[in-house]
């Protein structure tokens, strides 16, 4: 009988993940294994993998172990590693609650972008302290077919280019990554958000994610969009002295983002566990062997 590896499936505003609990970091998860798990036809299917490891057991997280017991070892669907995943943190927290590792209330989670504070509310939504955005100087340009837009470079621990467009359909099919220039601005690739206005402090976006393609939602992307929109609207909280809250609609739902005058950003949204099962370890080994 072949060995089985436990997994769960979850999503946050339809940004979906294969969750692999591995507290002692005993599993081998090379990029090809992650890509096989995320394959929507030949695997389980997901935009990425949330590898759940105790911080003390992971070389990239040991330094955060005193502050956060659990490390979100996040991988994009193509097997690449990213610094941060906002929807992933909410789903990771929901998994910890589901597994009985934490109760509702406050907790911390280690990520490659540092320790994140999380609040699991009684009503079910989860709020993540996403830290501060960095806005490197210099505009960039996003192009789709014959259209180009100036875009804002926003770093939420991971890189984003935020373009305001007249119509979300102008982003096209997003089967391939939209070119962003100058390319040297993003030596490790970039997530690209297309944004339209929906009303006062209310926008809608589509996203092409580095390493995953078009997804139904991106939490760090929604934060980048809120920050870029506040700057465009003259509502930078550091200047006005008042928090700026934006509702960001994504194809998979809605996220609410607040930036405070000290620059700290909070994101609130849902997180759902939809299934639990077992991976055939032999299949997985063949998938990357
Ligand atoms: N979907 C995520 C972002 C995942 C990482 C991204 N694709 C990257 O490579 O930076 C989110 O919810 O933030």
Write up this protein:
Pathway: Amino-acid biosynthesis; L-lysine biosynthesis via DAP pathway; DL-2,6-diaminopimelate from LL-2,6-diaminopimelate: step 1/1. Substrate binds at residues 15, 76, 86-87, 158, 191, 209-210, 219-220. The active site is at 85 (proton donor), 85, 218 (proton acceptor). The record marks 160, 209 as: Could be important to modulate the pK values of the two catalytic cysteine residues. InterPro entries: DAP_epimerase_AS, DAP_epimerase_DapF. This protein is of the alpha+beta class and 289 residues long. It folds into two domains: 4-125 and 271-288, Diaminopimelate Epimerase, Chain A, domain 1 (Roll); 140-269, Diaminopimelate Epimerase, Chain A, domain 1 (Roll), CATH 3.10.310.10. It is built from five helices and 18 strands. The strands form two sheets. Strands 5, 6, 7, 8, 9, 10, 11, 12, 13, 14, 15, 16 and 17 form a 13-stranded mixed β-sheet that branches. Helix 1 crosses helix 5 (281-288). The longest helix is centred in the last third of the chain and has 14 residues, at 219-232. It is globular, with a radius of gyration of 18 Å. The two termini are 19 Å apart. The model has no long low-confidence stretch (mean pLDDT 97). The structure holds the ligand N[C@@H](CCC[C@H](N)C(=O)O)C(=O)O. The ligand N[C@@H](CCC[C@H](N)C(=O)O)C(=O)O binds next to helix 2 and helix 3.
